[in-house]
Specification:
Blueprint (H helix, E strand, L loop, with lengths): L6 E5 L2 H16 L8 E5 L5 H16 L8 E8 L6 H4 L1 H15 L6 E7 L7 H9 L1 E5 L6 H14 L3 E2 L1 H11 L3 H15 L4 E2 L1 H7 L10 H8 L2 H13 L4 H24 L3 E3 L2 E3 L1 H8 L19 H9 L6 H20 L4 H13 L2
Parallel strand pairs: 1-4, 1-5, 2-3, 3-4, 6-7
Antiparallel strand pairs: 8-9
Helix pairs in contact: 2-4, 6-8, 7-9, 10-11, 10-12, 11-16, 12-15, 15-16
């Protein structure tokens, strides 16, 4: 196969795709001394009309000859009309993507270095499949919000700055930050600077220095509570309220996690899944057997186990021995009682949650 005529970088996360795209563009542009021979085009389009404008501008740029001779480099960045979206599915867009493919087939790599970066991308379509065969193709990360891909981002960034993280530190960092790749990268850099060169970033560093910014189940207090560690849970609550936090999101996180664990426990007790070192073995079969019973609950929700990320469920189930069904039901009742108590004692929210935690974990 001949050398690819262009470079195509895509993925679910625009930040990761854009960052790798910038690195690749800088490398290509380093060999082009004439600034007029370096061009960056914005590929973002909100409707079919804007897609047409992007494709026409790209065509003109590719067909332009360098004023002083020599090689040119063109970066079509932030392309968003290859996604499974209203604009991406439009008949006009699909025809224009065919035009884009035709333009790329005519690129002479010896005269023009072309880089295209796109996020997100519907890889079921013919164009991305064509790019895989004919371009210098790179897929960044995994699916949107994929836990394994996020873990890879953390570890790769740590390596890039000469740092290391313990497995528990990675787990807690993902729990506190969630799927925000920009913040994950910045947090790793901050933590690496704090611990110093050659030192390992530990769970205690993440607990002390990384804020709780993720939504839903990603709260340190929930992680600590369901690990059964009373001291850690009380310390997490203290940090949460010291930073000006409110009790309600903590209770919501505990309830969401508890609901998920109840469903996992029910499947495990029924023999539909088995909790092993890789998480939930048999989850796909359990989903095929039971997902249809969750009528009217197809959006991501703690009420429907099968809307959750399997990697995340595996992490939840694998962190520690699952509580008994009785304990999980008692937890849920304690969370409701704590909420009612906060309504009566709104100025003592931290104390209410501390009392609840002691009852649940010290009993």
């Amino acid at each position: 196969m001949a050398d690819p005529a262009f470079t195509f970088i895509c993925g679910a996360d625009d930040f990761l795709v854009g960052r790798l795209g910038q690195q690749r563009y800088d490398a290509l542009a380093a060999g082009v001394t004439d600034e007029f021979s370096r061009e960056i085009l914005n590929g973002f389009a909100a409707n079919v009309g804007e897609v047409e404008t992007v494709v026409n501008q790209f065509r003109e740029s590719v067909q332009t000859v360098s004023m002083f001779g020599g090689r040119r480099v063109i970066w079509l960045k932030d392309v968003n009309f290859l996604a499974d979206s209203v604009t991406g599915r439009a008949e006009g867009t699909l025809k224009l993507v065919e035009d884009l493919q035709e333009i790329l087939t005519q690129v002479n790599a010896a005269d023009t270095a072309v880089l295209v970066t796109a996020a997100p991308v519907d890889r079921r379509r013919s164009f991305p499949k064509w790019c895989e065969k004919h371009a210098d193709f790179t897929l960044v990360g995994g699916d949107d919000g994929d836990g394994a891909a996020l873990e890879g981002v953390v570890l790769a960034e740590a390596r890039s700055v000469g740092a290391a993280l313990s497995p528990d530190a990675v787990r807690l960092l993902l729990a506190k930050v969630g799927a925000n790749t920009r913040l994950l990268v910045e947090e790793v850099r901050k933590l690496a600077t704090y611990v110093g060169e050659g030192e390992t970033i530990g769970e205690q560093h993440v607990a002390e220095l990384t804020p709780n910014v993720a939504e839903g189940d990603f709260f340190e207090a929930a992680e600590a509570f369901f690990s059964g560690d009373l001291t850690w849970t009380l310390a997490a609550l203290q940090r949460h309220f010291f930073a000006g936090g409110d009790a309600r999101p903590v209770i919501a996180a505990l309830q969401n996690r508890n609901r998920i664990l109840l469903q996992i426990k029910a499947l495990a007790d029924a023999g539909d899944v088995r909790i092993g070192p890789r998480g939930l073995d048999g989850f796909a079969q359990a989903q095929a057997a039971h997902a249809g019973k969750f009528v009217g609950s197809t959006e991501k929700s703690s009420y429907n186990l099968f809307t959750q990320n399997p990697w995340y469920l595996g992490k939840l189930a694998g962190n520690a021995k699952l509580p008994t069904v009785r304990r999980l039901i008692d937890n849920q009742q304690e969370f409701v009682a704590a909420f009612e108590e906060i309504v009566r004692r709104p100025q003592e929210q931290e104390e209410v949650l501390r009392e609840m935690t002691v009852r649940c974990l010290a009993g």
